[in-house]
Amino acid sequence: MTQLQGFSDYKKERYESSCFTALEGSGEETLFLLHGQKSLVGTVVRQTTYDIHVASNGGELVVPKVDVKCHASASSAEVVSKLIKIDKKVSTLELGPIHAPAHRYFIKNKTLYPLIKEKQVMLLTLLEGEVIKGLVENFSRYDVEMRMKGGVGLTVLRHAIYDITDKKGRCYLKSFQKEARDWKRSALYI
User: Number of C-alpha atoms within 13 angstroms, CB side, residue 187?
Assistant: First the structure.
């Protein structure tokens, strides 16, 4: 049987973890980029299945998880805003949150795993046109952790992804990789 070396162990360890679980109760000031070109800075007090409760400016806001596109440490907010570019073509599509998982733009786990190991620079485009350039560091069922220029960390929620390409423009979405199967070209594929 052929497989990706270390992939099943990685999935067992990380796949069910959620970035919101890590933030919940940590007290970490976090910058959240939300749909509708909004942002919010606060701390995750608690979470439910579909919402996060964020303490911000002395109050508590309930934010649907599907409204969160990505998040980073609040201390890196200025740097993050400079590093994120906009794809004007995608932004004119006026895409909002996609609630039904079957209609989302999906990246296969076995496509993401070699990208971590090979440290390949990727371009992640979000539904509203934001383009995040960096290395894929980790992923779970719900999110993809990126490391941008200068070591700035950013976590992208998988439901907010529109496209993922390498610097040459090769697509890594499931719809394309169904035929291309780039993970088979990885040195990890045994």
Answer: 4
Domain boundaries, the chain: 7-180
Q: Quickly list H helices, 57-125.
A: 77-83, 88-91, 109-118
Is the CATH number of domain 7-180 2.30.30.100?
Answer: yes
The whole-model pTM stands at: 0.92
Longest dimension (CA), the chain: 56
SS3 (DSSP) at 19? helix
Closest CA to 44 of 138, 69, 32, 97: 32
Q: pLDDT tens digit string along 94-148?
A: 999 999 999 999 999 999 999 999 999 999 999 999 999 999 999 999 999 999 9
Do residues 71 and 39 touch, judged by C-beta distance below 8 A? no
